């Protein structure tokens, strides 16, 4: 069964850091574009960051640029999101997303990130 399992969420004070990880099973992320999407309370889905397998490029939403870093470990079949300088507006459920072979789309179950003093 194809799975994306996120981990690393939790509560942190403003200005703090967290690292989210997403481990894939039953497919190789080396053949997938991987990304993170979040949903804040009462709001819609917001794209956060992507990393592409074919060129290694990464892209970020303006709201997280220069604070978040997405990186992949193809051997470990894991993609991570290093989040720094967190603020309350980053509070959301974070979902890992994969687009495998440019046609199959997979989602993780989500992990909660809460930024509060």
Strand residues, percent = over 45%
* H and E string: EEEEEEEEEEE
End-to-end separation in angstroms reads 40 Å
Total DSSP E strands: 11
Low-confidence sequence ranges:
none
Mean pLDDT: 96
Instruction: List the total number of helices.
Output: 0
Structural class based on helices, strands and sheet pairing:
mainly beta
Shape: globular
Overall radius of gyration: 13 Å
Task: Explain what this protein looks like in three dimensions.
There is one protein chain. The chain is mainly β and 117 residues long. Helix content is 0%, strand content 55%. The strands form 2 sheets. Strands 2, 4, 5, 6, 9, 10 and 11 form a 7-stranded mixed β-sheet that branches. A 4-stranded antiparallel β-sheet has the order 1-3-8-7, with no helix packed on it. A hairpin with a 5-residue loop joins strand 4 and strand 5. The chain is globular. The termini are far apart.
Descriptive keywords:
seven-stranded mixed β-sheet, 55% strand, four-stranded antiparallel β-sheet, mainly beta, single chain, 117 residues
